[in-house]
Automatic annotation (TrEMBL):
Residues 342-351 have a biased composition (Low complexity). Keywords: Leucine-rich repeat, Repeat. SUPFAM superfamilies: L domain-like (SSF52058). PROSITE patterns: LRR. GO terms for cellular component: cytoplasm. Gene3D superfamilies: Ribonuclease Inhibitor. This is Leucine-rich repeat-containing protein 58. It comes from the Eukaryota. Coiled coil: none annotated.
Length: 371
């Protein structure tokens, strides 16, 4: 353990480590004021300041001067209820670690955060183990953020504005009370690691197949009963964690189907029979409706559907070992052969089709963690 106030300087940079010393806020303040004075005349800049596991209830005021070159600040394991305006003075900060505090109430983050230089400099933010019930709006303006950790909070949802974080590569939201994954999450082009374990998520939106950079997807200990078939399009996915979900212990084979409306029947007929029409033939609302046709995934069918479809589980063999239930949408109950449940014998058409489809994706997903 380093002595209180010990500084380590290497190759033109320095680290001040005051961790686990259980210093009073007053003592920390005096120590930082002294070190700040020293650094003003020093050749090397202080880049890393470690203050975890002390008794801080607020950020030291001394951070407002003498620490303008700081790149990493660790204030984890304290009793902070707010990150005050002192944070805004750290204009070059790249990494902020503030896990296991008491952050989450009104004013937990400083006003003006989204307009401060931190909006362009901060790349890693860890606020896990706090009391946030929602993702603060100001965090969604930190456009340079590459890693965001909010695990072990009390989050109820993921805001659609998460798509603003276009530089995000790692998102950790495990251990919350999240029930839904917003489709907007798929608009993060660089996202490689997505952790949503230990929540209350019941389904995965098919839009996640657009996360072409995704390498690891952690969904264990949720309420999933199936996966969308589009998950096979995650071409770089190397790890998929699903243990502790209902789909692992009991497969859902119930089919639900509501008869199509007269509007849908007419629209299906137009599409299937290739009846020509122009914008002058139909009202705008019908033209818009006809544009929403979805092709039936059964290659032997050739049908389409709009609002009415059969939701059916298809079992796909991953990596030659695991059989996962994927959701399929069919145009009618009669259209079931290539996409039917793998509850028949291993020589059935559905089984062979499942294995053919899985052979395309098995090499992509090197780890399927179910148990």
């Amino acid at each position: 353990m380093e002595e209180a106030g010990a500084a380590v300087a290497t190759a033109g940079e320095a680290e001040l480590n005051l961790s686990r010393l259980s210093m009073s806020p007053e003592t920390v303040e005096l120590e930082l004021e002294a070190r700040g004075e020293e650094r003003r005349g020093a050749r090397e800049a202080l880049l890393r300041l470690l203050l975890p596991h002390n008794r801080l209830v607020s950020l030291p005021r001394a951070l407002s001067s003498g620490f303008q070159h700081l790149q990493l600040l660790d204030v984890s394991g304290n009793a902070l209820t707010a990150l005050g305006p002192e944070l805004l003075a750290l204009s070059g900060l790249r990494t902020l670690l503030a896990r296991n505090n008491r952050l989450g109430g009104p004013g937990a983050l400083p006003k003006g955060l989204a307009q401060s230089p931190l909006c362009r400099s901060l790349q890693m933010l860890n606020l896990s183990g706090n009391c946030f019930q929602e993702v603060p709006a100001s965090l969604l303006e930190l456009r340079a953020l590459q890693t965001l950790s909010l695990g072990g909070n009390q989050l109820q949802s993921i805001p659609a504005e998460i798509e603003n974080l276009q530089s995000l590569e790692c998102l950790y939201l495990g251990g919350n009370f999240i029930r839904e994954i917003p489709p907007e999450l798929a608009n993060l082009p660089s996202l490689s690691y997505l952790v949503l374990c230990d929540n209350k998520i019941q389904s995965v939106p098919p839009q996640l197949s657009q996360l072409h950079s995704l390498r690891s997807l952690s969904l264990h200990n949720n309420l999933l009963t199936y996966l969308p078939r589009e998950i096979l399009n995650l071409i770089h996915l190397e790890e998929l964690s699903l243990r502790g979900n209902p789909l692992v212990v009991r497969f859902v084979r119930d089919l639900t189907y509501d008869p199509p409306t007269l509007l849908e029947l007419a629209a299906r007929t137009i599409k299937i029979r290739n009846i020509s029409y122009t914008p002058y033939d139909l009202p705008e609302n019908l033209l818009r409706y006809l544009s929403l046709a979805s092709n039936c995934p059964n290659p032997k069918c050739g049908g389409v559907y709009f609002d009415c479809c059969v939701r059916q589980i298809k079992f796909v063999d991953f990596c030659g070992k695991y059989r996962l239930p994927l959701m399929h949408y069919l145009c009618s109950p009669e259209c079931s052969s290539p996409c039917s449940s793998a509850s028949h014998s291993s020589t059935s058409q559905s089984e062979s089709d499942s294995e053919d489809e899985a052979s395309v994706a098995a090499h992509r997903m090197q780890k399927v963690l179910l148990g």
